Task: structure prediction
Amino acid sequence: MADEPRPVSLKREGDGLKIEWSDGSATFAAWRHLRANCPCASCGEERTKPPDPFRILSPQEVAAGAPAPVAMRPVGHYAYQITWNDGHDTGIYPVSRLRELSSPLSG
Result:
């Protein structure tokens, strides 16, 4: 929709993403929170399964450490695709979802 706020600035800040919006507001989303809420079908399916206490991390997951983006690119005018340091890159985050996953910044 045309009246929905759009990002006017996206900046890596500390352990997350600061977004300034067209409505004058600013929000912050931690990388860990964004990665844990990846909107791709595979991650969505994983989140519906009960936790596996015996799950073993892959060598790539161990090497990656804390979630962090290695690239972020716009997808049209409606979303951003994030490539993560664990190699995952199929999540496309609609602008509205980025807003939902972010916390307002005061001031």
